[in-house]
Amino acid sequence: MGRGLLFRMNDLVERRAVFIGARADYDPSYLVVVGAPMDFTASWRPGSRTGPVRIREVSESLEEYSPRLERDLGTIKFCDIGDVIIPYGDVEGSLTAIKGTVKKIFADGKRPIVLGGEHLITLPVISALKETWEDNGAWPYDKRGRAFPVIIHFDAHADLRDDYMGQKLSHATVMRRVSEVVGGHNIYQFGVRSGTREEYEFASRHTNLRGGDFLESLSRALREIEDAPVYVTLDIDIIDPAFAPATGNPEPGGVTSRELLEAIWLLKGLDIVGFDLVEVAPVYDRGDITSILAAKIVREALLIMGTS
């Protein structure tokens, strides 16, 4: 582990498992895998706090080489720094810890791959990105003049409630809170098949919620996004529970594992500034099929984002 990481993050993270192919040194790495083991606002089945460790553990079942991308993890600069140390039971304190850790990653010119944990962990990551850009005084603009990253949101649920059972901070409200950070017009949502009437009405006015054929809708949106900086947030429940049962709120009628991998491959060439995968709850798994799928998604994300 690089000396810079020891001095800057030793009190912020702990390592309990390592993703396959990860380098030991932080300083030369371009991509940084970090876990956010929080599931305090789970609205039905808790357990995603153990997702980051299990995804890493089962990653050893995979090859480092992706035949589709014709690339190997050994050719990219990435490390795995472990999990953010969070104060269990303290939602706001945990979000602060995640934000502080990820902001250091952004400030060092690196890009995070965040393993959840519940979906609320996306909020401090996006907030850290915005604050880093503000601190640097250098906003990335695409040719349309957009200053914030486009958010590509893969999920079974809209997550656009203003509150859930009176709570503003919940995995059911996360994209509503993110819209307050980046603007709803910058959020593109795919795979959504569950939400309240109010959420769908909010989406129709403020976000880009895309229905229809999953891959066709994504392809059309990518032509709109063009060269904008992109942040990708992926809730594993976008996938049908037949392929990914281990999640807190499984929702029938989702995409297949193959379709989701095709979607990740479509993102190749985008300027992806960060990526998270959330809501894997290993306690509900069968033969680790959800965790192994999550690990493969992370491998492909690393390979499309990585530099040699």
Structure summarized in a few sentences:
With 308 residues, this protein is α/β, with parallel strands linked by helices. It has helices spanning 3-9, 51-59, 91-107, 122-136, 174-182, 197-206, 214-225, 257-266, 289-305, and strands at 13-14, 31-36, 65-66, 71-72, 78-84, 111-116, 150-154, 187-190, 208-210, 229-235, 271-278.
Question: Architecture, according to CATH?
Answer: 3-Layer(aba) Sandwich
| Number of separate helices | 9
Low-confidence stretches: 1-7
Give the strand order of the largest sheet, numbering strands 1, 2, ... along the chain: 1-5-2-6-11-10-7-8-9
CATH superfamily: Ureohydrolase domain
CATH topology-level name: Arginase, Chain A
Structural class: alpha/beta
Radius of gyration: 18 Å
* Shape designation: globular
Distance between the termini: 19 Å
Q: State the name of the first-level CATH class.
A: Alpha Beta
The helix fraction, in percent, is 25-40%
Number of domains: 1
Number of E strands = 11
Q: Give average pLDDT, whole number.
A: 92
Task: Set out the fold topology.
Layout: H1 3-9, E1 13-14, E2 31-36, H2 51-59, E3 65-66, E4 71-72, E5 78-84, H3 91-107, E6 111-116, H4 122-136, E7 150-154, H5 174-182, E8 187-190, H6 197-206, E9 208-210, H7 214-225, E10 229-235, H8 257-266, E11 271-278, H9 289-305
Parallel strand pairs: 2-5, 2-6, 6-11, 7-8, 7-10, 8-9, 10-11
Antiparallel strand pairs: 1-5, 3-4
Helix pairs in contact: 2-9, 3-4, 4-5, 7-8, 8-9
